[in-house]
């Protein structure tokens, strides 16, 4: 038989075999969301001061899953809404919320002293820790979480533009997912339950 006649069936066979092996490999070893989520470069070390006036770093949050949100106490709408929602979520999560920690990092350290943050946060879930620091410390934390913030002058003062992402982080401090105040309550709570369960 002409060897060239065997070449095409051979190629079809080997290609088919290759497709089969790759498919089986993908089925057996799927690159699950948790595996890829751990590789997202969001989060990391920071050195800040808690609303109790004590030093506070990312190490204080390790060991249990946590939520991080950047904002400022003079925020007219987004921050109080988010903190109110988070407070309601933690109540709705019941016992599960005991494993969850939450940090509210100010992007306005000029006005947000530990004392002011303490007073402001007394309206929300007591498990939410307020964090402030020097301009440089806040900038470093914002860089770690890749959030945007900017000072905007207003009549006789200023306000802050800022990202309103709620970061969901696992117990090792690795990125788990995001949420925000515009997301439906049920979706957000399902994500928080998942974080507590798997994070
Ligand atoms: Ni805000």
Explain this structure to me?
The protein has a single domain, classed as Glutaredoxin, CATH 3.40.30.10. The protein is built from 6 helices and 9 strands, in the order ααβββαβαβαββββα. The chain has helices spanning 3-28, 33-37, 78-93, 114-121, 135-144, 185-198, and strands spanning 47-50, 55-57, 66-71, 101-106, 128-132, 149-154, 157-162, 166-169, 175-179. The strands form 2 sheets. The chain has a 7-stranded mixed sheet with strand order 2-1-5-4-3-8-9. The chain has a two-stranded antiparallel ribbon with strand order 6-7. Helix 3 packs across helix 6. The model is unreliable at 28-38 (pLDDT under 50). It binds nickel (II) ion. The site of nickel (II) ion has 6 residues, from helix 3. The site of nickel (II) ion (NI) has 6 residues, from helix 3.
């Amino acid at each position: 038989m002409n060897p060239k006649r065997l070449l095409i069936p051979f190629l079809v066979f080997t290609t088919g075999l290759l497709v089969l092996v790759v498919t089986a490999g993908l089925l057996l070893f799927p690159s699950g969301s948790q595996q890829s989520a751990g590789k997202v470069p969001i989060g990391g070390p920071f050195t800040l001061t808690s609303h109790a006036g004590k030093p506070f770093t990312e190490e204080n949050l390790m060991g249990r899953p946590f939520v991080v949100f950047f904002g400022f106490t003079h925020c007219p709408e987004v921050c109080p809404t988010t903190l109110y929602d988070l407070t309601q979520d933690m109540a709705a999560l019941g016992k599960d919320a005991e494993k969850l920690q939450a940090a509210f990092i100010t992007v306005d350290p000029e006005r947000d002293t530990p004392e002011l943050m303490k007073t402001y946060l007394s309206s929300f879930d007591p498990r939410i820790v307020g964090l402030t620091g020097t301009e440089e410390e806040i900038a470093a934390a914002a860089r770690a979480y890749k959030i945007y913030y900017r000072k905007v002058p207003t009549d006789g003062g200023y306000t802050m533009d800022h990202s309103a992402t709620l970061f969901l982080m696992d117990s090792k401090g690795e990125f788990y997912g995001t949420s925000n105040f515009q997301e439906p309550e049920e979706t957000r709570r399902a994500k928080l339950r998942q974080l507590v369960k798997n994070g």
